[in-house]
Write a structure and sequence with these properties.
The protein is globular. With 246 residues, the protein is α+β, with helices and mostly antiparallel strands. 17% of the residues are buried. Helix content is 25%, strand content 26%. The chain contains 5 helices and 11 strands; from the N terminus they run ααβαααββββββββββ. Helix 2 (24-32) packs across helix 5, helix 3 (45-51) crosses helix 4 (53-61) and helix 4 packs across helix 5 (63-83). The two termini are 27 Å apart.
Length: 246
């Protein structure tokens, strides 16, 4: 498996095996939560390193690629566990929008920071410790937009670009997956069940470096952090927090 772990299909299968072995309790909490209060599954990076070191390193190096795969694996693990239960659907439900959250990164200065990261850290998975100095209002963000191709009649989605203030670019060609290449450039918004799930809550907070961890005379810097879904309203000004993200 380790020789092909970079393959997305193999990686997703390994992720599902990890979740079912190490996170069964968390998956059960997702399934049996009837109030939609539990919408995330926390994974311990130390446990992932123990399970498959190469997979853990790929997640650290390319989180934007492998974190979404973990969300898909979480969905598959929920469905697999649900098939093993005899409880009714009204009590045991699969949470389609559940998010995998990474915790407890290895205690290494390149991964756990007390200083605000720079441009060389763009796209990396890091933990930052600091103090919340400002919290914004909870707003709604469109995560993706669904289109229908007028030529092949296929449906595809375009994700928002967080770095571009959640801008959703207009597709330049058909993005419907499949063996037949469609070169159409004509699209219309699709009417689908996903329309009600395209938007999520988000909140911007500002975190400042903790003065007690800086050398004398150093001016503390700050960074804006975007909290999404169930993380909104979890922090308030003055809180000391550790944020793990990309």
């Amino acid at each position: 498996m380790s020789d092909q772990i970079s393959n997305t299909t193999v990686a997703q299968g390994a992720m599902q095996m990890f979740l079912e072995e190490y996170c069964a309790v968390g998956i059960q909490a997702l399934l049996f939560d009837t109030d939609d209060e539990v919408m995330s599954l926390h994974i311990d990076m130390h446990e992932l390193l123990e399970f498959n070191h190469e997979l853990a390193m790929l997640l650290l190096e390319s989180p934007s690629k492998f974190l979404p795969l973990f969300n898909i694996a979480c969905l598959a693990a929920q469905r697999s566990l649900k098939q093993q239960t005899t409880v009714s659907d009204s009590i045991c439900t699969v949470k389609e929008d559940a998010q995998v959250r990474v915790t407890h990164l290895p205690n290494h200065p390149t991964l756990q920071r007390t200083r605000i990261p720079g441009s060389e850290d763009v796209g990396r998975l890091l933990s930052i410790s600091g103090t919340v100095i400002r919290t914004g209002l909870v707003k709604m963000m469109e995560t993706h937009r669904v289109y229908s191709c007028t030529k092949c009649r296929g449906v595809f989605s375009v994700n928002a670009e967080v770095e571009q203030y959640n801008y959703i670019p207009k597709p330049v060609r058909c993005l419907v997956p499949g063996p037949d290449f469609c070169n159409s450039t004509a699209f219309v918004p699709a009417d689908s069940a996903e329309d009600s799930q395209r938007c999520v809550d988000y909140q911007e907070i500002k975190i400042q470096e903790q003065v007690g961890r800086l050398t004398l005379g150093t001016i503390p810097r700050a960074i804006v952090v975007v909290l999404e879904r169930d993380l909104v309203d979890k922090a308030k000004s003055g809180d000391s927090v550790t944020v793990t993200g990309v």
